[in-house]
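User
Class, as today's exercise, I want you to study this protein, comparing sequence with C-alpha cells, and judge whether sequence predicts the C-alpha cells.
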Amino acid sequence: MTDNSQQMDEINRRYVELARRHGLNPVWLREIIDLRNRGFNYSQIAERTGISRETVANYLQRLRSMDRQDYWLLVIGAGLIIAGVGIISYFLGRGGSSSQSSNE
C-alpha cells in the first residue's frame, strides 16, 4: 500500500489535471470551493481571495455546469487537498472497517 503523502500527491495531480482540462486555475478553484462550502457569498469570497466577484461567479457557474462526475471529483478533491493527509488516514484507518454497534 502506498503511503499517505503519495496518495495526496496523486489526488492533487488528478485535481490539477481536471481543473485545467476545464480551463480553471486549480488554486483559485480550491479556494473558491473551500470558502463557498464554509458559507461565504460571492463578494466575501472575492474579498478574501483577491479574485474578482465576476470570476468567482464564473468559476462556480462553470463548476455547476460540469457533468456530475467531474463536479464531484473537483469538489471532493479540493476538500481532500485542504484537509490534508489526516482525512486519508481517517478513512484508511477507520472508514475501511466499520464496526457498527447493535446496542444503540
